[in-house]
């Protein structure tokens, strides 16, 4: 189930991923669909450098909205 996640959506982690040094709430961008309920998410610092790219399930992601619903 997709849960409304789309390519280039800005998302936040819903859980820590200590193996990759990522904490709940860190923000990334969906850069690829890998299959049902799987997305590749890129995490970039303020200087535009990628510090992590991971395959994640939709349950590990929260889509961030910048406009009123």
Describe it for me?
The protein is mostly beta strands. It has strands at 10-13, 27-35, 38-44, 50-57, 61-63. Strands 4-3-2-1-5 form a five-stranded antiparallel β-sheet, with no helix packed on it. The chain is globular, with a radius of gyration of 11 Å. 13% of the residues are buried.
Residue share in β-strands: 35-45%
- Let me know the average pLDDT: 93
- Helix count? 0
Kindly provide the radius of gyration, computed on alpha-carbon positions and rounded to a whole number of angstroms: 11 Å
Q: Report the major sheet.
A: 5 strands, antiparallel
Low-confidence regions: none
- Element-by-element helix/strand order: EEEEE
Strand order of the largest sheet: 4-3-2-1-5
CA-based shape: globular
What is the SS-derived class?
A: mainly beta
């Amino acid at each position: 189930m997709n849960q409304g996640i789309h390519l280039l959506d800005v998302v936040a982690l819903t859980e820590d991923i200590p193996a990759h040094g990522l904490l709940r709430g860190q923000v990334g961008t969906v850069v690829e669909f890998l299959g049902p309920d799987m997305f590749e998410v890129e995490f970039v610092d303020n200087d535009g450098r990628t510090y992590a790219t991971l395959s994640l399930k939709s349950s590990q992601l929260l889509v961030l909205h910048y406009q009123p619903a």
